Amino acid sequence: MIADDFEAAIDRLGKALGFAANRPDKELREGPDNLWALRDDLYWIIDARIRSMPTGRRSTKHETGQMNNACAWFKQRYPGAKNRNLMIIWTKTVGAASGFNEDVGI
To answer: 77: domain CATH number?
Structure first.
């Protein structure tokens, strides 16, 4: 599966860079695709939407909803920790019917 291979590569990259990296969605069946602990109180939440191909389209409610859910999951499990939310996706345009509840880097 392409998505699983990509998420595994992101996990390996995080570990190669020296971060504590894991895959909550794969391991726990909840949370973000990838989570990197850069230090004790700073994390990167990474959601990969690589199945979405570039066609000049906008992100969908489902795609932004997945990121919003990952952010909520993080806040419940890591109260008070700082995080940066990152989405890997082919578009930088958010659809009119979708949106983020937190700041998200694309």
So the answer is: 3.40.1350.10
Burial group, residue 87, by CB count within 10 angstroms (0-12, 13-18, 19+): buried
Q: How do the pLDDT tens digits run along the chain, 106 residues long?
A: 688 999 999 999 999 999 999 999 999 999 999 999 999 889 999 998 876 555 557 677 778 889 999 999 999 999 999 999 999 887 776 777 788 889 988 8
User: How far is the C-alpha of 68 from the C-alpha of 71, rounded, in Å?
Assistant: 5
Q: Whose CA is closest to 102, among 64, 76, 52?
A: 64
Number of domains forming the structure of the chain = 1
Q: What is the DSSP letter of 21?
A: E
**Predicted structure pTM score:** 0.88
Sort strands 82-88 and 42-48 into parallel, antiparallel or unpaired: parallel
Do 36 and 44 contact (CB within 8 A), yes or no? Answer: yes
